[in-house]
Amino acid sequence: MKAKAARAAAAWRTYQDVTKPGTPGLMARVRAIPRLIGAVMRGEYGEMGKGKLALMGLGVVYLVSPIDVVPDFLVLIGVADDFGVFLWLLGSLLGESGRYLDHERRVVQGSLEG
């Protein structure tokens, strides 16, 4: 029960972060995800490790895979574990892509000043 509450709280914090004035909006963060993945893979963005990226990839595989840890025919439990993974993945991707956009902005400003 605590894990569900923690995931819901994390989703709420992500929503608040995305809607905060002066921060990158939802679509800017979504568009930044492919650039984020590429930068992590090339080693250009050191604030996120390849291990966390791999965990996110496993989360995507888990969501689209027909094999499930808790079968979906156990309606409440089976759907809840998928939804929990979805909330974690969404919160992680949106949060990290927002930090990546800040990183991009700092790099661009640094190259313009230097």
What does this structure look like?
With 114 residues, the protein is an all-alpha fold. 78% of the residues lie in helices and 0% in strands. It contains 4 helices and no strands. It has helices at 2-19, 26-42, 50-64, 75-113. Helix 1 (2-19) runs parallel beside helix 4 (75-113), helix 2 packs across helix 4 and helix 3 (50-64) runs antiparallel to helix 4 (75-113). The mean pLDDT is 84.
Helix and strand layout, with pairings?
Elements: H1 2-19, H2 26-42, H3 50-64, H4 75-113
Helix pairs in contact: 1-4, 2-4, 3-4
Membrane topology: Multi-pass membrane protein
Subcellular location: Endomembrane system
Protein name: YkvA family protein
Brief account:
This protein is mainly alpha-helical. 78% of the residues lie in helices and 0% in strands. It contains 4 helices and no strands.
The beta-strand count equals 0
C-alpha end-to-end distance: 51 Å
- Could you give the order of the helices and strands? HHHH
Shape: globular
* Helix content bin: over 70%
The radius of gyration is: 16 Å
Counting copies of identical and different chains, the oligomeric state is: single chain
Low-confidence blocks of residues: none
**How much of the polypeptide forms β-strand, as a percent range?**
under 5%
Output the structural class. Answer: mainly alpha
What characteristics describe this protein?
globular, mainly alpha, YkvA family protein, 114 residues, transmembrane
